[in-house]
Design brief:
Length: 172
């Protein structure tokens, strides 16, 4: 990664000179850390997507299955969107695919007849029951390389960065 930033900040050839010199001070370590986080996110995402694809799922659909597996009465689409941190439009698209594959079903809301809740079907529960142990084993294999102190430190650092991102989002 350092070579990429060396090319950006210190153009040494005619081909590189088109990049020009920066008009601001680059925090190379911060940018390298950002790229490493993006690379990790991409790689773990790809690894998990290969697992989910065996069940015709995506990570987003798996998140919905995890939420619904914990709910006895089902969840409203707006609740699912809030838990997942995405828009209701995104959830609507994911739910349509899950409904089409008979993984979830809509049922009338027990208090509001105009609303509905989403529940796992028997097939959905079966898929989740098969997939969950594989998911947990994969995550465990990856993160068992960290000792408890490293895991705690990583969680602390990632939460610190999340708070900063949330602050930055509120400014925009």
């Amino acid at each position: 990664m350092t070579k990429l930033f060396d090319r950006v900040t210190n153009p040494s050839s005619a081909a590189d000179s088109s990049l020009g010199h920066s008009h601001f001070d680059l925090n190379i370590q911060g940018l390298e850390t950002f790229l490493l986080c993006r690379q990790f996110s991409t790689e773990i995402g790809s690894s998990l997507e290969s697992l989910f694809s065996k069940y015709s799922l995506s990570f987003g659909k798996f998140n919905i299955l995890m939420l619904l597996s914990k709910s006895q009465t089902g969840l409203m689409p707006s609740e699912i969107a809030n838990f997942c941190g995405v828009t209701q439009a995104t959830i609507s698209g994911l739910l349509s695919g899950l409904e089409k594959n008979q993984i979830v079903e809509r049922q009338p809301h027990h208090q509001d007849g105009r609303a509905f809740v989403i529940r796992l079907t028997d097939k959905g529960q079966e898929v989740f029951t098969q997939l969950q142990p594989e998911f947990c084993k994969k995550i465990e294999r990856i993160f068992l390389t960290l000792d408890p102190a490293e895991a705690t430190l990583l969680q602390k650092v990632l939460n610190k960065l999340r708070i900063e991102i949330q602050k930055d989002s509120q400014l925009n």
